[in-house]
């Protein structure tokens, strides 16, 4: 009896194990109400970031972007941000679908929009809090089936939200204050040491003016001689000095040169005339 039961149950157990292996893996995911995209204008090189609600259509240039679902993983799972997006190229004559499929924020080039002027890719999903269990693949799968709200062709007559180009922010230039001497040029070793002038501390308050202390009430100039006004003194004129006078009867004789000494036959002066 026991052998018969094992013989019957063994194929059933094998079938159940095969069915369990054939089922896709299940993991937790978060459905978010908003998707964050980045748009590139290839002519101007300008990139803008914009948020789009699920099933809302926005227009970036000639492209109309409509996200149908935006999924993320909780922190306990491997990170994966993906969304099913529909992109239509609209001009004055017609509208055609240029992209319909899954986008992945970690791999923008895996499945992206092909357009000569504009480019759009998924950056993030936000706003979701409810965690649900659904079959997902461990890696990004571009061949996953589309969601139930996806549309196969552009919807005529819808009015999208038009994105306005953002002006670039002007760089802020800091003006140095008057107390800042600015950068000091490096010194040349050949010119010797450079003396730096002492700079005033930044933010130091100026000194208050000196306070004059007056004389007590009732005190006259005699009690406080320092407070009495003094008369300015006139400068003294220098006295002229008289010229030196000569004694009476003294006459100044002109200086005469000494007589030339006598010379002998050979032209030498005599010894007597030298002393």
Automatic annotation (TrEMBL):
Database matches in Pfam families: DUF2155
Signal listed as a keyword: yes
Top-level taxon of the source organism: Bacteria
Chain segments carrying region Disordered: 132-275
UniProt KW Signal keyword: yes
Listed Basic and acidic residues bias regions: 164-173
Low complexity bias (residue ranges): 132-142, 174-205, 212-230
Name the record gives this protein: DUF2155 domain-containing protein
Source organism of this protein record: Rhodoblastus sphagnicola
